[in-house]
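User: Hi! I'm a student and our assignment asks us to look at how structure tokens line up with a sequence. Could you show me two examples?

Assistant: Happy to help. In each example below, the sequence comes first and the structure tokens follow. Example one:
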Amino acid sequence: MPTVPTGRTTGRQAPPGVPSPLHHPGLALAAIVGGQLMIGIDTSVVTIALPDIGRETGLSTGGLAWVFNAYMIAFGGLLLLGGRAGDVFGRRRVFVGGIAAFTLASLLGGCAPGGGALVAARAFQGLAAAFCAPSGMALIAALFDGPARVRALSLFSAVTGVGGALGMVLGGVLTEAASWRWVFFVNVPVGAVLAVLAARVLAETPRRPGRFDAAGALGSVAGMTALVYLFIRAGDAGWSDARVAVAAAAAVLALGAFVLVERRAAQPVVPLGLFRDRNRTAAYLVQFLLIAGLFGGNFFLTQYLQDTLGYGPLRAGAAFLPIVLAQFAVVRTVPRLLPRLGAKPLVAAGSLLVAAGFAWLALLPDHAGYATGLLVPFALIGGGAGMSVMPLNAEILARVEPTEAGAASGVSQAMLWSGGAVGSAVVVTAQSGGATAVFTVAAGFAAAALLMVAAVLRRAAA
């Protein structure tokens, strides 16, 4: 990879194979990280507001689950297409366009007159995020090198992990201080500033003409939608319901067709060669499992704090602060440990902490006190998440060819957010068993990630 020069950036496309120089690498990184933080926050900022949204729009519990999952499905399902768009049109152009579209979708969400319009706005947000996120990660891979890339990737990974937990806190503040609509309106001025900043300071990457694998993208979205619907429907109607069986068949067919299309496509959204690297494949699967546990557990925690423990939105949001603070504390040390230890021990330790945190919650009584019951497991969950995200991203980008950086980062983000959608859907199914069942499921996802690390991920220096 080329190093980052200090010459002035003009915003024009550089000669083929050579990124434009960065005049302000700090501002360029701020634009990329700011976009990723906004996207990460919106994966969860709405969850604290769900009770208020349900009262105003009349959405059922299943409908409220779609307010959360419409974003996650569109995001995870279209990320691969978004990564390809960055390769074809230039990653700076796609990144800026994604932020602008996300800002518009947020405005529409805040103005939504009813539940259906709100779900549609959330899907639009997810689509915009799908084009923004992989270009952001790929821009770091293209424009930064050496220690600068390690620092940039560390910060990018930190906001990816912290964004979800921070969204809980911000959602509580906005919902109680104003209304649930402000969890969307707050993105409008922030997104406008980020779009202008990114257009001015980011260097463009070379374009690589190619085709869009629309069939592959459609297959991934259809498969994920059917899979999420399967779990949500099973939670409402039971596993013997006919629609559950239909959804299961549709998920298998759509995801199977997706794999066949990708094997035959001239320019697939998922180059299957990315999975020839054992460590990269393991890192993708660990991402999926770990995020499924984290997002699924946190999705239920927002309801548990408000409905079971009687917290208001502000207090419920503030309850997530130990998770945020623990993540921030841990991610500051990970970049120093990664070159010495490699990814495997860090990801294994992080997965173990997350599993232990949720297992602890599963053993608590229904009305446990915060300081005596919730504080320590919250800190374990936050610390484990912070310890895992950056090493996984580093392992995914290690040894990847520059021409496949967009695709590799797109698959990474797809695994991450698709895992969140599946995890939250599984939690809806497990809610009939109460808090113990839900937290046990979340701990099980993290334990599965730990087993994957132990069995498949090879220990190698970053």
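Example two works the same way, sequence first and then tokens:
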Amino acid sequence: MATRTETGTETEAGTGTDTGTSTDPAAERLRRWRLVLGADSAAGAGGGFAALSGADGAMDSALEALYGGRGDPGAQGPGSREGGLGGSAPRVARWLGDIRTYFPASVVQVMQRDAIDRLGLAALLLEPEMLEAVEADVHLVGTLLSLHKAMPETTKETARAVVRKVVEDLEKRLATRTRATLTGALDRSARVTRPRHRDIDWDRTIRANLKNYLPEYRTVVPERLIGYGRAARSVKKDVILCIDQSGSMAASVVYASVFGAVLASMRSLDTRLVVFDTSVVDLTDQLSDPVDVLFGTQLGGGTDINRALAYCQSRITRPAETVVVLISDLYEGGIRDGMLKRVAAMKAAGVRFVTLLALSDEGAPAYDREHAAALAALGAPAFACTPDLFPEVMAAALEKRPLPVPGTAARPAAAPSP
């Protein structure tokens, strides 16, 4: 959750609004500090701050409404910060419009999340006019998914449109790179010893023939060629995404659903998507549309990882060609020893097992360190992963090479990759 200081320091760049900033560097510094500190803090900081007016005053009111204590978005200033949210939807809608006027989209999204968390605005998202006013992002999608069972029919179509916009934006950002990275990994995983010229893997071929180096000619004579086949014809891997849908995993569920749809679109992969809390739901038949997948989830509730892994294990038919990706914070409500025994059994059978504590851009996640360390001891390191890193993680898993574990992601869970 951002504070006024965290948000205010970001507001000054990229707003696109004429705030009447001074050309005097000292005056500009004072102006920025006044916006960061707020009226009350600035008054106690020794003075020297000029009164704000115009766009600066409106910007300050928008920040004060949210970060000024008993804030009420849409209030007109520090003196109007009393009362609850009853009947305040029109004022909230105006406040949402104000912050989009004065702040860049990245700051608007932070302020919206803070308004939902600090001021209890989640209920207002059940109103279509509110959904049309907000800036859509992954965190808003997570909130809508947690509310969608309670949404009135008049709101559901608007909510679905908001979710679809975010999903389509994510697909545009992530799909091309994911397909390219994984296609290369699948090609390289199909090693052949009599490749055609265009399929020769020159790095591996040179390394395998270094003993045949001729100093007088300064060249290597390749007695044995190593190449890779074309994945679309000769390689097929099985991928199972097993996703924890507890409330804390909302952003991870959104990203995993998008990646699941991308993986399902690749003919060289047989992709299965399973979501779980205390029950297990197989959403594989909905992978053609990640929006359907997301609305098939139910954020919240308990967690039974052991039961989810039991289901995934029952669907494995080719262990040596299977990658299982568990996306969970590992707070297990089921049978801990059972969970670990299933992971050990899958790995012993040849399954490549990957544990992601989070699949999001939210930074270091909260997770069960004891369970993460236990998985690491089994040779299945648990670590957080950003959406941009996920294609590289999957490529390494498909090729059975060491996983690109971020250096600071989960040190207590770190262990050599199998």
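Here is something you could point out in your write-up. Strands lie at 191-192, 213-214, 219-220, 227-228, 237-244, 269-276, 280-282, 322-327, 352-359, 382-385.
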